[in-house]
Amino acid sequence: MTDSDRARIAGFLMLGWVALLWLLEAVDTATGHALDAYGITARDTGDLPSVLTAPFIHFGWDHVAANSIPLLALGFLAALGGLRRFLLVCAVIIVADGLGVWLFSPSDSNTAGASGLVFGLFGYLVVRGFVERRPTGIIVGLLVAAIWGSAILSGIGPSDSSVSWQGHLIGLLAGAAVAFLLPKAPPGRAGVYG
Description:
The protein has 194 residues and is an all-alpha fold. The chain has one domain: Rhomboid-like (Rhomboid-like fold, Up-down Bundle), CATH 1.20.1540. Strands 1-2 form a two-stranded antiparallel ribbon. The longest helix has 28 residues. It is globular and about 50 Å long. The C terminus is likely disordered.
């Protein structure tokens, strides 16, 4: 597969993913926010399946808008490394972040949104190039850190009680961890950035 093919697939995938988030928010709004119940309620064992649904649910248009551009950009860059790798990275981040939110969020909180995945993709992209020691990956990681770093760092502390800083921090750590845990891509199949 050529780099151009990877870029086209990554672009379509992320445009579709973000479109799905907006469609779900439209359904949520039309149903009086019925989908908000699919967020993660801390330490409610009956709510564990919400670990998988919460990243697709948002609490209003501003919430989905705030996650759309970084998810589109960071997801596109991560997907350039290959579709299977990207889906595995996203699955690990979503599950680890969701379980962490379920364990460590305040009691009776309801957490939803793609920001844990966004923070995870940031951590993955920043770390992956250094782990694989590929110059293009290192450059991508440095650019991602320069462009998104201050916003990411400001979102991992308990400065706003309406934001799940736990989800942000756990997502960031999960993304960095998966960068170390995945096997190094073979040279011919490394994708655009590694």
